[in-house]
Amino acid sequence: MKHVAIALFAAVVSCSHPMTATTDVTPSAASAQVADTTVTRGALTLSLHDFATRGGIMWTLPGVQAGPSTITVQSTRYGSLCRVAVDGSATTSGRNVTIDITFTQRTASCTSDIRALTYTAKLSIAPGTYDLAVVHHEDGTANTLVQRTVTVP
Asked: Residue 125 CB: number of other CB atoms within 10 A?
């Protein structure tokens, strides 16, 4: 009986310890379900990667960086390459640049672990100042997540 009480106490203490949210989402090669993918559509190169993670992380809006003759957009969200097909395209019209990222649910049998999906979209573009929009398409809905002016050196 004494051992049961100690085990019960240990279980209560370990379960009552507060979990802290962390952004330490180190990829694990052993947990990968679908190989990382890179797709090129014209001047846009889209690199996709997923990894095991914890629930409760608040992912931020896509980040945008301008580099020599490139605009790079990177974003992470919950999802896996097994469950979600991701595609991208870019359109330019004068100063206006739109990077469209489309997420389509797959009907695949996947593991139930929590995963995060990261994309990096690199657009090769001439130096200049552009009005950039990053639009995510999913379930028939288009959401403009980023709209800003970018100067490409």
From this structure: 19
Rounded Cα distance, 105 and 115, in Å: 14
Please indicate, yes or no, if residue 1 is contained in any of the structural domains.
no
With beta carbons less than 8 A apart as the criterion, state whether 119 and 112 touch.
no
> What is the rounded average pLDDT of the residues 58-81?
96
> Is the predicted pLDDT of residue 64 greater than 90, yes or no?
yes
Q: Is the pLDDT of residue 150 over 80?
A: yes
Would residue 46 count as lying in a domain?
yes
Q: Tell me the residue range of the domain where 81 lies.
A: 22-152
Q: 117: how many CB neighbours lie within 10 A of its CB?
A: 22
Instruction: Determine the Cα–Cα distance for residues 59 and 23; give it in Å rounded to an integer.
Output: 9
φ and ψ at residue 16, rounded to 5 degrees: -90, -5
How many separate domains does the chain show?
Answer: 1
For residues 130-136, give the mean pLDDT.
98
pTM of the model: 0.77
pLDDT digits (tens, 9 = 90+) for 8-38: 333 333 333 332 223 333 444 334 456 899 9
- Asked if residue 60 is part of any domain, the answer here is yes
Residue 61 lies inside a defined structural domain of this protein: yes
CA distance 79 to 48: 11
